[in-house]
């Protein structure tokens, strides 16, 4: 598993009846790789993983693995209410042929370091797969501090990366100061990618990439090359869209963007509902405006 470059946190498409649309899932997966992405992450928050059964999760992973073959790796998001279920998901991912795991803290229950460490210890140890710790204290109320991430890195040889989504760019430098280059650093919030690369990140678990892969890869590459003028020109155009990744209804917004570019549907699974009224009209207006002003790459 190479934790570098643009790796989409994939959405999960649904049919009109509400089941997973495996045909569109396979098509979308390959489209992202065709446009320069380095792999995909399935079953994350953007993938509405919390609404999928264990059987559905296994089927999603199998579809992604079969669709890509050896073209690019598939990473499974591992999040559950219980540690036992998280371990089940990790083992199902290994069986399906995934090459990596994105390890989240448990849903709902957040407590002290002893318990949260025990949870991720068991998930990381459940398979030999390469693992990326996902730190998102805003969404999951558990904050893995740089010193704690360093402890996990010492304890687990197969922990190879951290997805930092605290939205505090200083965290990247703090982690790097603790462990050097022991773990790959990946940005997990869309509107911090250029700043994150400046702070040492070499990967991006991206959201709007689901609708704009070409632009996402171009932005990442320009930032990595240090071409600040061109990077910020593209960033300036992209930012109103990238900010859709960091609000409560990010799933609905990104799926609406996919629908507008012809690669997906705005359908979501309850308790989410598709956007409606003025809220939808305003979001659609932003998307269409930026499509009309889409830069040539």
Protein described:
Helices cover about 45% and strands about 10% of the residues. With about 300 residues, it is of the alpha/beta class. It has a single domain, classed as Alpha-Beta Barrel (TIM Barrel). Helix 1 crosses helix 2, helix 3 runs parallel beside helix 4 and helix 9 packs antiparallel against helix 10. The model has no long low-confidence stretch (mean pLDDT about 95).
Distance between the termini: 29 Å
CATH architecture: Alpha-Beta Barrel
Classification by helices and strands:
alpha/beta
Give, in order, the helices and strands: EHEHEHEHEHHEHEHEHHHH
Task: Please give a handful of descriptors for the protein shown.
eight-stranded parallel beta sheet, TIM Barrel, 297 residues, alpha/beta, globular, 8 strands
């Amino acid at each position: 598993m190479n934790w570098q470059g643009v790796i989409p946190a994939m959405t999960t498409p649904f049919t009109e009846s509400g089941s997973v649309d495996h045909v569109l899932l396979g098509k979308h997966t390959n489209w992202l790789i065709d446009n320069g992405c380095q792999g995909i992450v399935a079953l994350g928050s953007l993938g509405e993983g919390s609404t999928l059964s264990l059987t559905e999760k296994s089927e999603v992973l199998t579809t992604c693995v079969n669709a890509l073959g050896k073209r690019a790796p598939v990473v499974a998001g591992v999040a559950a209410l219980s540690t036992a279920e998280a371990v089940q998901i990790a083992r199902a991912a290994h069986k399906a042929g995934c090459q990596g795991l994105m390890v989240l803290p448990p849903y709902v229950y957040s407590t002290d370091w002893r318990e949260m460490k025990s949870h991720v210890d068991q998930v990381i140890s459940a398979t030999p797969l390469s693992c990326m710790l996902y730190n998102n204290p805003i969404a999951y109320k558990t904050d893995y501090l740089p010193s704690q991430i360093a402890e996990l890195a010492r304890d687990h040889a197969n922990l190879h990366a951290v997805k930092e989504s605290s939205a505090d760019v200083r965290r990247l430098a703090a982690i790097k100061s603790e462990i050097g280059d022991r773990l790959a650093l990946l940005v997990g919030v869309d509107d911090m990618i250029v700043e994150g690369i400046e702070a040492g990140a070499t990967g991006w678990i991206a959201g709007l990439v689901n609708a704009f892969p070409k632009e996402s890869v171009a932005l990442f590459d320009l930032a990595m090359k240090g071409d600040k003028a061109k990077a910020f020109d593209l960033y300036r155009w992209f930012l109103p869209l990238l900010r859709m990744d960091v609000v409560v209804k990010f799933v609905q917004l990104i799926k609406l963007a996919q629908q507008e570019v012809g690669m997906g549907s705005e359908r979501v699974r309850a308790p989410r509902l598709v956007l409606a009224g003025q809220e939808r009209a305003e979001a659609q207006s932003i998307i269409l405006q930026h499509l009309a002003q889409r830069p040539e790459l």
